[in-house]
Amino acid sequence: MRPQAWGGGVAALLLCIAFAHFCVRIVPADAPSSPRSPGSFRPAQSAETGELVVPVEGVPPSALVDTFTQARAGGARPHDAIDIMAARGRGVVAAADGRVEKLFWSEEGGRTVYQRSPDGRRIYYYAHLDSYAPGLREGQGLRRGQMIGTVGSTGNADDAAPHLHFAIHEMRPGEPWYGGTPINPYPLLRRQ
Fold this sequence. Notes:
Layout: H1 3-23, E1 71-72, E2 77-78, E3 82-85, E4 91-93, E5 98-106, E6 110-116, E7 122-129, E8 131-132, E9 141-142, E10 147-150, E11 163-170, E12 181-183, H2 185-190
Antiparallel strand pairs: 1-2, 3-11, 4-10, 5-6, 5-9, 6-7, 7-11, 8-10, 11-12
């Protein structure tokens, strides 16, 4: 074999390996066919390494900014959440397993989802949504990574800066969906 032919074969083999590593996704035969349907489960980008996934499709943990302690309403109140900037219409997914506690429209949050964890100890709050996933309803079980809506700027969000306002509240037994004590989601999402 000539050295040039052997070198070309190695290059082709390396390209094939790189293609398989970065471009080929192996999906189990029993995986749902449509990850955007409201009852389906979309495998989480890092389910093995963290309790939560970043609740906006395509946003890596390294892109998050900790806005939890920033002042809002002219300094009248703390943010108590993080804003995840993304294009309008980008998919919003459940950060953890749980169930839809409340679908709600508010002047500040616009179109919102309140999701309670299976043990009832946390509420995950998603606000400023442009739309809900088709068929999303109160009481529905959710799996981490499942589509729940799309990024928007409803409520008091700036139309020019669509984003997901994401908050987590620690809940006492029997506490209603609108209660709880805010905890910072940033370190929980960044540990992925």
